[in-house]
Records
---
Amino acid sequence: MSGDLKRWLNFGSGVGLEIEPTRLRVSVVRVRPAGATQVASYQIESYLERPAAEWGAEYAAFLKQHGVSHSAAYVVLPRSEAIVRVINLQGVLDRDLAAAVGYQLDGLHPYGEDDVAADYARLGDSPWVLAAIAKRETLSFYTTLFAEAGVAVANVSPSAALIWAGLRALNEPPPSGLLLWAERETADGPAVEVYGESESRPAYSVVFDQTRLEDAARLRSLATSELRLDAATEPQPLPDLAFTAAILSALPRRALAVNLLNEAERTSSSRLWLVPTAILLAVLALLTTAYLMQQNYQNQKLLERLNQEIARVERYQAESAKLDSEVVALRERTKLLDTMRLRTPEDLDTLLDLTRILTPPGWLMSLDLTRQHIAVSGEAPQADSLLQTLDASPRLKESQHLMPVARSQGLDQFRVRAMREGLSAGPAEVKK
């Protein structure tokens, strides 16, 4: 999963509880994609001398005040009361990890086999495994104390496991060469807790008892030597452990799977408070779906109406085109009738000219009259001068014989064709 997507999944509230010799430090954190915000912090003083029910009521009131009564705390076990070991199990598959860790576990602590509680987790995708070990009676003491106080506990881990996961919960993994430290007060006096990471040691956690930060040069030398870091590496303060535990309580999937608490004693954070939110989200999703479906339905109906309207208009358009073609045809017919009406006088005038030209005893045997020309055959006393006479008419021109003139019984037989002129526009030919 990409870092951006992981950031947008950062939602939740959590409670972290750090155990100190004389007090309990409580932190309430709200996590959002923009980061983690400490809502409130609280210190329960002298918790070992006071009745558990008394300070437990204070703890419950504090959680209720800040709306996290449903949250089970992630508890930071004092580093001096836990053993942390980092083991290199190169080539060991996840399914064989339990057997491999169990095989080496007896050599990682000085206690009896039945006197310890232990858990482990692989550090990311590396071959390194972080193992946490604590005395069972120590865990039993704290679990009994929290049960009497009514404190719901989801996880008990040493600081090293929480710091490793906390450095990666909201951000990208830190660069190699990390060195952190802080001064602690323990039952045996002051101590300095050191945590570091490097390419040779993915997690390094140690407590220097009876030591203060005044011995910084010696502590830094020891730590940088163990981590194979540059001696000039400047240590940074350890993060607030209660705050870090609260972040992992809000984002339990980002925590290392290291939990010294027995499964039967673990309390899961109640998610009933999320039910109204989940219902509202479901209603919102249904309304959004209905809105989108309604839009699609309305768009579909609109499309159907548009298609119907288009079909209706196309039908009217087709009818209009048909009427236009009928109008054009009627106009052509009207024009043709007008032309035909004008032809009769023109044809009669042409016949009148022929009658004047061919006087008796000349006569016509045939007459072909078209819009372009006229062809006649017949007999005349003198057919040779017929062409000149025809061309002299204003309605005829370009006269010519279609056959040689023949003399028979005192008359010339002829067949003549002439072009017509001075006619009105109209269809090409009409045969009479």
---
Amino acid sequence: MRVLGEMLEQFPPSSTNNLHKEVIDSQVKGITHRNDRFSEGDVLVAFRSTPESLQGNPVLLCREKCDWAGPQIIYDNLENISREWAVALNQQALHEMKFLAVTGTNGKSTVVELCRQFLCGVYANLKPSSLGTLGLVCADKVQETPNTTLLPLDLHKCIREAYDEGSRVMCLEASSHGLAEGRLEGIDFAVSAFTNLSHDHLDYHKSMAEYQQAKAKLFKLTKGAAVINMDCSYMSSFAGIQENEILYSLKSRDASLNIEVIACSADGFEVILMDDGEMHHIDIPLLGRYNLENFLCAFGMLRAFGVELESLLPVIPSLSLPKGRLEKVKGMEQLVYIDYAHTPDALARTIKCLKEHYPEKEIHVLFGCGGERDQEKRPKMGQLAAELAHKIILTSDNSRGEETTEIMESIKRGVPENFKNLKCIRDREEAISCALKGLNQSSLLLLAGKGHELYQDIAGKVNVFDERQICLNYR
């Protein structure tokens, strides 16, 4: 905790209102912009206006004096100052915890989860935690979060909550949005990693060059080691920033970490793992060659973190993919997989993966695209699905404020006219039922795009939507 007066000395305000001596002498525990997560001792940031239904008598940080009889501290540059407050109030956790982070278009959630599983197997006493698309995972509890990389006030509150639960090491996803907006500033990373770069978020970044520059910002926040995917054509933009560097590859023996696949089955891979020239014959219980890349990334991050090879090898047989990442729907006669693939590259990788692990099966794929997001990727996804899958069903994803039918038409423009096994079904639940009806012993179904999500955002309304349950309820 810090005394409020000390914070005001460190961060002089533009002005104050109703700030009495007893308030100045009070202890400040934390800072938040969400009234629903406000607790006693927190300072509450009012970015837009006075929050409704205030609990207790909080001190407000405001951009200008607002209609509130309680104490107010006014800052012209509220976004930056509130982040600096969060960093200052969270110094103990930031000092005592170790942080690892990964950036890239695809694979972040899987790498973070594999890192956490590795750490739990090696350093269980440190109560390893993770934070990203799948939420805050700490001490066997999962707390949903609104963004892949949280806004600074939410981010530091989650770090503090993990710290209070006993966590002393955390793996984070670093999104391009979060990096571009400086959300991770104030955190020193012991290890940072880069997975890959492909078409995504160009509605926000405007160009691949800008997207690439945002990703590279992570390595400027890193005082320790970097782990880089040598197989990505963009790797040169990330390599060489850190002195201590581990390169991983599925293709090149020049990499520090390399895998040679010996056999592939529905249970995973039999491989030769090369670690700085040392050879190990192991089984990896994950589907998808791109998940071998994710495995190498996570493995490399732990090696860069100082974990001995002999400590990591016994953990490998117990590894599993996170929810919604090549997740097999259990308890069904039909063969169905759920995956978050929502970019052209991710969709192609996932279909190719299933073709490799199930070479005798026809691949049926059901997907849509998010509304009010990158429109350029839609026909590309349609084209790739037609090239790789036997049957396509286009449907809704999170259409948000766009018309689902128009989104489907955009995807359809990439599908060749001579591709006959195409259906467009606006309602996703109806589409899933239709897809399941079309399955037999020689085919499998990929439900792509939703992954771990348990909702649909359609026309401004967010509804509960669990693809697993829809599949299990199918008759």
---
Amino acid sequence: MPEPPKVQAMPPGGAPPATSATEWDRVAASPEFRDLMATKKTFIIPAFVFFIVYYFALPVLVGYAPQFMATKVIGNVNLAYLFALSQFFMAWTVAWLYVKAAGGFDRLARDIIEKSESGKGGK
């Protein structure tokens, strides 16, 4: 079966990328690129696990501790309502943290691109 063609994203300037498969393989094998991927994983995986646990805690608590979640806090507002509302704020917080971290990821990626492009000039 033939290998499907590789799709490359258009950079913001609009010019098509001028990287070959061997150049991409060289960049992907570089220690800087592996460090970038490791850095991203150290943020993304724990954030993902935390948010999934936080998200599923509400239905689990409502199912297994209904009396606790029915505890009134203010008027008719109970813990389940507060927890459900807190999930919006938690999603925004995780998104904000990712945006902050992504700035660092972008700087590392820019450095990798610049190093790759400077390496092409010498060939």
